[in-house]
Amino acid sequence: MAARGTRPSLYISVDIEADGPIPGPYSMISFGASVAGRQDGASYTAADPEQLTFYRELRPISEEFVPEALAVSGLDRDRLVREGADPAEAMAEFRAWVREVSAGAQPVMCGYPASFDWTFLYWYLIRFGGDSPFGHSGCLDMKTLYATKARVPLRAAVKGRMPRELLSRRRHTHHALDDAIEQAELMSNLMLWTPPVPARAADRSPLVRPAAGGA
């Protein structure tokens, strides 16, 4: 059970696609979210990542964009200008969805890596509505989580170096909802993972030092 006065955490995997490096001058053009699981004290329960999801494609907020960034998502910017959801309406719908799925728990955004996705998501939540259901710091970076549990430098916390049992079998498509679901599985795998106990330094050493005074 959670400590007295501490609500359980509900981890929500979020992935965003953008047409540039920062929000404001550039736009978040789509975002997807998937409930990964719930932590109550030391207990973590994984959710079906396809069961509770949210996805919107957004109307751009400026005329500026970086072609290479836009190409990653494969979305048609001209179509989004005509048909994309109004950002204020989309963020209001997202707030309502987060509060509905996290009833009784503290919602925590998780991302891989969280820094880029959180920058856009939080900016949009505050710019279009002035309120974040995650607060100002309710985010968790899966790269940091892995680096801490595996005891490796952050630069080594990449999917290509992770144990295969941690990785989702889903493809990383750069469709925001697909990737949010994939990363929700990674999040649950990380939370439930018990890394192997590292060997002692003496056990790893190939050298055997003779005792003092020995032959």
* CATH architecture classification name: 2-Layer Sandwich
Which strand-content bin applies to the residues?
A: 15-25%
Specify the overall morphology: globular
CATH fold topology? Nucleotidyltransferase, domain 5
Annotated CATH homologous superfamily: Ribonuclease H-like superfamily/Ribonuclease H
Share of helix among residues? 25-40%
Low-confidence stretches: 201-210
End-to-end Cα distance: 59 Å
SSE pattern = EEEEHHHEHEHHH
Sum up the structure in keywords:
215 residues; alpha/beta; Nucleotidyltransferase, domain 5; 7 helices; 34% helix; globular
SSE inventory with pairings:
Layout: E1 9-18, E2 28-40, E3 43-46, E4 53-57, H1 67-73, H2 77-83, H3 87-101, E5 106-111, H4 114-127, E6 139-141, H5 142-150, H6 176-192, H7 201-204
Parallel strand pairs: 1-5, 5-6
Antiparallel strand pairs: 1-2, 2-3, 2-4
How would you characterize this protein structure?
The protein is built from 7 helices and 6 strands. The chain is of the alpha/beta class and 215 residues long. Strands 1, 2, 3, 4, 5 and 6 form a 6-stranded mixed beta sheet that branches.
Quick take:
With 215 residues, this protein is of the alpha/beta class. It has helices at residues 67-73, 77-83, 87-101, 114-127, 142-150, 176-192, 201-204; strands at residues 9-18, 28-40, 43-46, 53-57, 106-111, 139-141.
